[in-house]
């Protein structure tokens, strides 16, 4: 999806993404593990990685097989741990995940 950067730009959120990787760049379609591996390599040791997609099989299951959390958007599948109807839901889920991550790091520091 080469137009992905344009879509994100029109939504006003392009600058919120460290890296955008798609099959046109990598030569691999999801759920091929190499598609996700190249994304992680492009990020160079990220603190967290999220796959946001509308296909459980290709996007979410493929990401989870590589240890990447996922958010299923605009479709429903009972196997998805996280899902929402659109961008506001994605933002809310990511903000909640960030809060939980900060709390876990704080708790681990208290135990040391």
Care to give the gist of this entry?
With 112 residues, this protein is mostly helical. It is 52% helix and 10% strand. Strand 1, helix 4 (56-65) and strand 2 form a beta-alpha-beta unit.
Describe this structure in words.
The protein has helices spanning 4-11, 23-26, 33-43, 56-65, 87-111; strands spanning 50-53, 69-73, 83-84. The protein has 112 residues and is mainly α. It has a single domain, classed as HAD superfamily/HAD-like (Rossmann fold, 3-Layer(aba) Sandwich). The chain is globular and about 40 Å long. The N and C termini lie far apart (46 Å).
Descriptors:
112 residues; 10% strand; mainly alpha
Q: Output the CATH homologous superfamily.
A: HAD superfamily/HAD-like
CATH topology: Rossmann fold
Strand order in the sheet with the most strands: 1-2-3
CATH architecture: 3-Layer(aba) Sandwich
Residue-averaged pLDDT: 85
Approximate shape: globular
> How many beta-strand elements?
3
| Structural classification | mainly alpha
């Amino acid at each position: 999806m080469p137009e992905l950067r344009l879509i994100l730009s029109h939504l006003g959120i392009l600058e919120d993404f460290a890296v955008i990787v798609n099959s046109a760049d990598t030569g691999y379609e999801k759920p091929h593990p190499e598609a996700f591996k190249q994304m992680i390599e492009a990020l160079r040791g990220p603190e967290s990685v999220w796959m946001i997609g509308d296909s459980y099989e290709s996007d979410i299951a493929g990401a989870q097989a590589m240890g990447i959390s996922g958010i299923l958007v605009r479709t429903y599948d009972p196997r998805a741990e996280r899902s929402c109807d659109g961008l506001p839901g994605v933002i809310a889920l990511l903000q909640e995940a960030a809060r939980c991550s900060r709390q876990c790091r704080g708790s681990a520091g208290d135990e040391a």
